[in-house]
From TrEMBL:
Similarity comment text for this entry: Belongs to the carbohydrate kinase PfkB family.
Binding residue positions for GMP: D39, E40, T41, I42, V43, D44, G92, T93, I94, G95, N96, R197
An example molecular function term from Gene Ontology annotations: ATP binding
Reaction equations catalysed: guanosine + ATP = GMP + ADP + H(+); inosine + ATP = IMP + ADP + H(+)
Taxonomic path: Bacteria, Pseudomonadati, Pseudomonadota, Gammaproteobacteria, Oceanospirillales
Family matches, as InterPro entries: Carb_kinase_PfkB-like, IngK, PfkB_dom, Ribokinase-like
The protein's name in its UniProt record: Guanosine-inosine kinase
């Protein structure tokens, strides 16, 4: 009997053979290719509001604001009464990223964080699980008696996003719930800078321990910066963590300026590359930059030269990313892409676009990890590359995923890329 649906290959039920073992939803470190994400588990309530509401509740526009439970309840009640709420979504920058990764790769990922021990219908934890891919392994979450975080995304008429966050127990993740064996066998570990806001909470030490495990086992580590305000308040500590444990740094242009003092995204990325191996920098209507290192012996020249604040900056963008320590003679590589087809006619919500771009980069890194283990003798691995594709091709992929997020007006992918683009995806992976 043929499987239903659209398939590139024909598959039949092996009726004459023993029944196969059903696939496990839990990650198997010795068999699966997966990434690990550590996050503050939180549900987003998305609402369209006026600037007046922000002023009345003393919410700083464009930033991530921590509010107490009473303020959060008052805001939520007013939004519900005025019917401003458009949706409930599972949130968190890393939660978004690994969900998108599992949708794109159609494969497993692992989420580390907390989860309510008792989940009630309609609770934040209920919404979180309902809106997260079934491919995301949640078996390593830490059970807590209280609720996960509750964040309200307030979108003003100019499209700006402002966050009002009631933490709940989302920062109670402790070091004992960081599984070293799961991190050690992963293709990458991704986390964010948000735990630095909570110096007295256990999640900060849990994040640092996860980064330490990944570093000790030579697993690529990825850090997202959060918000400009967060970077400004914790700049020195962030730089210390980045220099010690981070391979890939993801941010937008405002966060890059807060970290380096440089307003030009290209110059900021150039400065950050003195501390990390790869930089993913989203610059709103300017598009995105992917910058990193490769070895001089395997560099590949582009066919379309661009210049900006750095002359001919994209000359080697057809090269593949490498860790700087793996290069005998490292050179910096810069690639840039404009927004996909100019983007949607009207962008109503930019929430999650950067997370989508990062998930595409992680997909490419895990593809390289899988291919290297499956076919180690392939010419694709004649050097210790970090990713499967070139800087330029990863830019295209990341840009396409970001566009899909913007077009569907949601912070997470609800599906993979459209089937009509199969041929584009095939040519992408063949490159």
């Amino acid at each position: 009997m043929k499987f239903p649906g659209r398939r590139k290959l024909k598959h039949y039920f092996p009726v004459s053979q023993p029944k196969p073992v059903l696939p496990s939803s839990e990650v198997r470190p010795d068999k699966d290719t997966y990434i690990v994400g550590l996050d503050e588990t939180i549900v987003d309530v998305v609402a369209n509001v006026s600037d007046e509401l922000l002023e009345r509740f003393n919410i700083q526009k464009g930033l991530s604001n921590l509010v107490d439970a009473n303020t959060a309840s008052a805001i939520y009640e007013e939004l519900a009464e005025q019917k401003c709420i458009s949706a409930h979504f599972a949130g968190g920058t890393i939660g978004n990223t690994i969900h998108n990764y599992s949708v794109l790769a159609d494969d497993k990922s692992v989420l580390l964080g907390i989860m309510s021990a008792n989940i009630a219908l309609g609770s934040p934890a209920y919404h979180y699980i309902c809106h997260t891919s079934s491919k995301v392994d949640m078996n390593h979450l830490q059970a807590v008696p209280g609720d996960i975080g509750h964040g309200i995304t307030l979108i003003t008429p100019d499209g700006e996003r402002t966050f009002a966050i009631a933490p709940g127990d989302m920062d109670e993740l402790d070091v004992d719930h960081i599984p070293e064996n799961i991190i050690a066998a992963s293709a990458a570990l991704v986390t964010c800078a948000y735990p630095l806001r909570h110096q007295g909470k256990p999640i900060k030490q849990a994040m640092l321990k996860a980064l330490e495990y990944a570093h000790n086992h030579h697993v690529p580590t990825v850090l997202t910066l959060g918000t400009k305000h967060l970077v400004e308040e914790n700049r020195d500590e962030l730089l210390s963590i980045i220099k010690a444990h981070v391979n890939i740094l993801a941010m937008n242009e405002l966060e890059a300026e807060a970290l380096t003092g440089l307003a030009d995204p290209l110059q900021a990325a150039n400065a950050i590359l003195d501390h990390v191996d790869v930089v993913l920098l989203t610059a709103g209507p300017e598009g995105l930059y992917l910058c990193g290192h490769t070895d001089d012996s395997v560099k590949r020249e582009t066919n379309t030269i661009k210049s900006a604040s750095l002359t001919d900056f994209n000359r080697w963008e057809f090269s593949r990313p490498m860790l700087r320590e793996a290069c005998e003679n490292p050179i910096k590589v810069f690639s840039h892409i404009d927004p996909y087809m100019g983007g949607p006619e009207k962008i109503r919500n930019t929430n999650g676009a950067g997370d989508g771009a990062l998930s595409a980069l992680l997909h490419d890194i895990s593809a390289n990890h899988f291919h290297k283990e499956a076919i180690p003798s392939s010419s694709k691995h004649n050097a210790p590359f970090l990713a499967y594709s070139s800087f330029a091709q990863i830019c295209k992929y990341a840009n396409r995923v970001s566009y899909e997020i913007l077009a569907q007006n949601a912070s997470r992918l609800s599906r993979g890329l459209p089937e009509k683009e199969d041929s584009l995806e095939e040519s992408y992976w063949e490159r």
